[in-house]
Amino acid sequence: MKTLFKQTLTASVLATLVAGSAFAAPTETPPAFIKKVADGLISRLKADHAKLQNNPALVKTIVRQNLDPYIDSPAFTRIVMGTYATNQYSSAAQRAQFEKNFRETLIENYGSAFAKFSNQTYTLRPYKASNSKNPVVTIDFNNKGEKIPVSFQLVDKGNQWKIRNINVSGIDLGLQFRNQFAANVKRNGGNIDKAIATFKPDAEAAVDKK
User: Fold this and answer.
1) For 126, which DSSP code?
2) Domain range holding 60?
3) 89-96: long-range contacts at Cβ-Cβ below 8 A with a sequence spacing of 24 or more?
């Protein structure tokens, strides 16, 4: 009887946990989430602005602490690797290595850009709620009088939103990085290991294609 009771109790607890995780959803709205991320990053950049120019390591630390946790790195990785993210072209270990390298080079990319940050501001565009699994929130950054629209495509990770792709001035960075990686695979004769080891996503080159 005791064994049956324990089994029933265990099953009940597991069922509750599964149900809770299945129906968990972010408590923040998509624009509230993006505003939180942007405000946190910008306030940190402003606070340490005097130190940024001569301290690249600090810039990367700021990006790693204030932006990286909110990126859905596995999803971004799949977008960038494209067909090379399938078992036909790469192994799980190769994809994990790509994600690690890609994440670090993205931090370097954003770090270089944010090192030039002075006193830019932003405005959040009006958001229209939809039933899309990947809502998009757009911010207009004011860079010395020039408005730069940056759209963040989100994904529901159960208890919070995460960023799965970014669009800058109409340029889909995930797609551009995918093209860059595919070109790198060709340059390396189809050798995935070499392509992963030498791939450096270039955000500025991607945006300059417009």
Assistant:
1) P
2) 25-205
3) 89/192, 90/192, 94/192, 94/193, 94/196
Check: CB of residue 155 under 8 Å from CB of residue 72. yes
Q: Measured in whole angstroms, how far is the alpha carbon of residue 4 from the centre of its chain?
A: 47
Q: Does residue 125 sit within a domain?
A: yes
Q: What is the mean pLDDT of each run of 10 residues along the chain (210 residues)?
A: 38 35 70 93 84 81 88 92 94 95 83 66 89 91 83 91 92 94 97 95 69
Q: Hey, is 39 helix, strand or coil?
A: helix
pTM of the predicted model as reported, rounded to 2 decimal places: 0.79
> What's the pLDDT score for residue 148?
86
Q: Strand 171-172 relative to strand 121-124: parallel, antiparallel, unpaired?
A: unpaired
CA distance 49 to 156: 33
pLDDT at 106: 81
In a domain, 10, yes or no: no
Place of tokens 């946790």: 69
| Residue 167 neighbours by CB distance under 10 Å | 19
pLDDT at residue 64, as a whole number: 87
The CATH code of the domain that includes 113 is 3.10.450.710
Query: End-to-end distance of the chain based on CA atoms, in angstroms?
Result: 71
**Signed CA dihedral, 124, 126, 131, 132: sign only:** negative
